Request: fold
Amino acid sequence: MRVIVLGSAALGGFPQWNCGCPNCRGFREGTLKARKRTQSCIAISPEGERWYLIDASPDLAHQIEVTRELHASRLRESKIHAVLLTHAHPDHVLGLPAIGLGGVVGETRTLIYGTRRTKEYLLSKNTIFAEGIDEDNWVEISLNKKEEILVEGKPSGLVFEAFSVPHRPISVKEEHFKEELEGDTVGYRIEDENGKVLVYVPDIREVTALALRKMDEADVIIFDGTFYRDNELIKLGISSKTSEELGHISIAGPNGSIEMLRDLNVKQKFYTHLNNTNPLIPEDSVERRLLQVEGFHVVSDGDVIDL
Ligand SMILES: [Zn+2]
Ligand SMILES: [Zn+2]
Reply:
């Protein structure tokens, strides 16, 4: 299985348009050793021909343009045959209406895989999604059930399993979505025909026993690296909320993800979904070096991971 990291930042990307924090300023002034990051999304393929996305970032059109593997080779063609959604937050779904995914491109039908609640929220509360997504193309997923990703009704060679992860409610306004229910956010375990396993969890508040079980013995995990420290935004004076209050486990600290994931039997551990304030963004930071010592890495846009 081949994984291409299309985007590796949290909502807003890096640099973030309205931000003048030391990272964003340093990048714009050319004094920070860092790469631009678009909002998180990955493409996976068992054979390098047909591609499946996990999430559809608002930056998807640009991400496709800079990824040769996803270019059309005919007059109208989508190399993307399915999109698996982790949850309904804008940084994970806005690419669908933005480029018209979920309808039909040429002869290709793009299937959208997501939970019933994600479907309900996007299609019944958001006209812009309902207009573009053909309901017949939506595949409602169940939790903790191994299912084949289908392409034109046939097995793709990839089996996925979605598992619930705590994050934060889907909506702050919509009555039925203000309270977080099990499965509102999921992580994905993807297995190919050679038994290689990828686990992708871009947004998670707390490492549960279930998440640990799904991640253990994976070949590769790509995990929520939004904030390095729990008080990162408070210290910068950007917000009064901790990382946990915003729905993301911090990387460092006694209950951070380094601590929680350290003993997992996983070949390669990566962080993605970095917020623009994260000290892992500068490639020569102390935090980056410490992370490597712990056996973790950070993905960047365009990275290719072969399993
Ligand atoms: Zn997110
Ligand atoms: Zn989210």
